[in-house]
# Entry
Amino acid sequence: MMNFVMYLEEAFSVDFSDFEFDVILIDSVNDIEALVDSKLAR
# Structure
């Protein structure tokens, strides 16, 4: 899990310190896509 979170931070500039992380945010491919899209939209 930690490796995947680190990958998202590096590849998509998702800063997990900006919000309260819950594993449900990356529970499915659709959830991951929504998370990345929301962070890229900033």
Summary: Helices lie at 2-12, 29-40. The chain has a mean pLDDT of 91. The two ends are 25 Å apart (CA to CA). Residues 29-40 form the longest helix (12 residues).
